[in-house]
Amino acid sequence: MPEAGAGKGLSTLPGALSRRSLLGGSAALTLPALPLLGGCRAVRPTKADTSALPVLVTAITAEQDLVARYQAARSAHAGLAWLLDPVLAHHRSHLAVLRRHYVPGSGRRAGEGGKIPPSPQVTAPSGGAAAVLADLRRAETGAAARLAADVAKVDAGLAQVLASIGACEAGHVEALGRAS
Amino acid sequence: MSEVTAVSALQEALKAEHAAVYGYGVLGARLRGATQDTARTIWDDHRAQRDDLITRLAARGVRAVAASPVYKLPVRPVSGRTAAQLAAALERALVTAYTGLAGTPDPALRTIAAREMQQAMARSVRWQAMSGAGRVTGPSSAFPGLPDSALAPAPEPGGSGG
User: Looking at residue A114, what is its pLDDT?
Assistant: First the structure.
């Protein structure tokens, strides 16, 4: 199977020079248009059935908690706005989309699958910016782990939404770690 | 029918892993020291993941899609900075590719896909930072790998919609 540098170190790729020249020259333009990006087969989610409600309640509760934590962190450490504001915007988007999927039962079925608690009141942890970033990182890591497990419990479309949110949280974890 | 869906999603993920294996092989030559070590480790991970996908397809009696001899890369790696940019782009492509697998009927495959998406997104952010992009705040989108049309529940027949 053709493979760049198979069995060799990256610095000693047998084809490194030829690849560089290939990529660096106009030859790259004459290559057949080989797709790099795999097509994303996004499944349009259906409205969640009742079996998905506990998962949605957990996910929405986690996002509410994250939003509250970031808001508290933002209030306590305005100097971190460059990092916290974009991430907070992501979590608000996650929350809005998850709420669109949450359609609780009515009448005798009201409350089936659990109810969404009110958003928590959160105070930023003491200990300075490093402690705040560590707290946010722990919360993001926990949310990402739960989402990876929960994709197995819901329909295909919602699973993709949860998987995408989990990937976003994992990206936040990395960004928070680099800012610490 | 569901098996066809799982197979096609596995093949899409495999195509992206093939591209990543190729791309890391190319970009690694532009890196030095610890950064190159990081690239080598990730390269090994992608080769292992590629092999795992091939095994899963074989278990379904399906011939895995082969790697192309060459790939058109989205970034030309002529320096350490552009090599890191290429790595970030390859990882973003993997997030998108595994999103399909996250929507298959097989719960085990969904879980694998979700974990791979998380790993790829974290790596993409790491490479973005290593490319000297300045302050890195995480993914550029709140829903990496998904088009906007996939975010709202589909209207139900006879229902009032969203």
Answer: 80
Considering CB atoms only, which of A34, A39, A46 is closest to B154?
Answer: A46
Beta-carbon pairs below 8 A across chains A and B: 255
**For residue range B89-98, what is the model confidence (pLDDT) as tens digits?**
999 999 999 9
User: What does the alpha-carbon distance between residue A167 and residue B45 come to, in Å, rounded to a whole number?
Assistant: 18
Query: Could you tell me the mean pLDDT of each successive run of 10 residues in chain A, 180 residues long?
Result: 41 33 27 39 62 93 98 96 98 96 78 84 92 97 98 94 98 95
Work out the average pLDDT over B40-68: 98
B55 lies within 8 A of chain A by CB: no
**Which helix (H) or strand (E) covers residue A138, if one does?**
helix A128-150
Beta-carbon separation of B137 and A166 below 8 A: no
For every residue of chain B, DSSP letters joined together read -HHHHHHHHHHHHHHHHHHHHHHHHHHHTT--HHHHHHHHHHHHHHHHHHHHHHHHHHHTT-PPPPPPS----SS---SHHHHHHHHHHHHHHHHHHHHHHTTSS-HHHHHHHHHHHHHHHHHHHHHHHHTT-SS--S-SSSSTT--GGGTSPPPPTTS---
Name the residue of chain A whose CA is nearest to B51's CA: A1
Q: Is the pTM of this model over 0.90?
A: no
Tell me how far apart the alpha carbons of residues A6 and A8 are, in angstroms, rounded to a whole number: 6
Residue B83 · residue B27 · CB < 8 Å: yes
Task: Name residues 81-140 of chain B within 8 A of A (Cβ).
Answer: 90, 93, 95-100, 102-105, 107-108, 110-111, 113-115, 117-122, 124-126, 129, 135-139
**Among the partner residues A11, A41, A45, nearest to B9 by beta-carbon distance:** A41
ipTM over 0.95? The verdict is no
> Which of A18, A36, A141, A162 best probes binding to B when mutated, by most B CB atoms within 10 angstroms?
A36
